[in-house]
Amino acid sequence: MRHLKKGRKLGTNASHTNAMLRSLAIALFENERIKTTETRAKEVRSLVDKVITWGKRGDVHSRRLAISALGNKEIVYKVFDDIAPRFESREGGYTRILKLGPRKGDAAPMVILELVE
């Protein structure tokens, strides 16, 4: 039973899912736009929103939470110094999902996930 289990499995075990979401979030913060499947984009959106909210808060505890969630100090510096100040007047919804259509090989629905503004 999956009682109290949040999130999608994404066809992998829990550690692989967490690693995949972490790397997708890092790629989004590096490039500010990534192309991925729709379910992965919907799942990584919550992690990205949490990290940006921590970046807006800006205290030491928030930095440590972000480093723990992403595992990359350089990306956390970029989020806290460059990305989070852009969203100071915004209360949430920091990402946008643009649908592209099915992938050629397996017809998985593809999207572009990007940061707003």
Write up this protein.
With 117 residues, the protein is α+β, with helices and mostly antiparallel strands. It has one domain: 50s Ribosomal Protein L17, Chain: A (Alpha-Beta Complex), CATH 3.90.1030. The protein contains four helices and three strands; from the N terminus they run H-E-H-H-H-E-E. It has helices spanning 14-31, 38-57, 60-70, 73-83, and strands spanning 33-37, 95-102, 109-115. It has a three-stranded antiparallel β-sheet with strand order 1-3-2. Helix 1 (14-31) packs across helix 2 and helix 2 packs across helix 4. The protein is globular. The mean pLDDT is 95.
Spatial order of strands in the largest sheet = 1-3-2
Mean pLDDT, all residues: 95
Note poorly predicted spans.
none
> Which strand-content bin applies to the residues?
15-25%
The number of domains is: 1
Number of strands: 3
**CATH fold annotation:** 50s Ribosomal Protein L17, Chain: A
Approximate helicity band: 40-55%
Distance between the termini: 41 Å
Rg, Cα atoms, Å? 15 Å
User: What's the CATH superfamily, by name?
Assistant: Ribosomal protein L17
Oligomerization state of this entry? single chain
Helix tally equals: 4
Shape: globular
Instruction: Sketch the major β-sheet.
Output: 3 strands, antiparallel
* Coarse structural class: alpha+beta
